């Protein structure tokens, strides 16, 4: 459960960082 939350946090962070430069890449990672 904690690992699942950590993974979600990581993906959310990466998504946030990528969305600044490339929205499409951020969307790909979120899926």
TrEMBL record:
Instruction: Please identify the protein, giving its name as recorded.
Output: Uncharacterized protein
Please name the source species: Nymphaea colorata (pocket water lily)
């Amino acid at each position: 459960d904690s690992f699942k939350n950590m993974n979600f946090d990581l993906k959310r962070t990466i998504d946030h960082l990528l969305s600044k430069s490339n929205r499409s890449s951020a969307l790909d990672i979120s899926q």
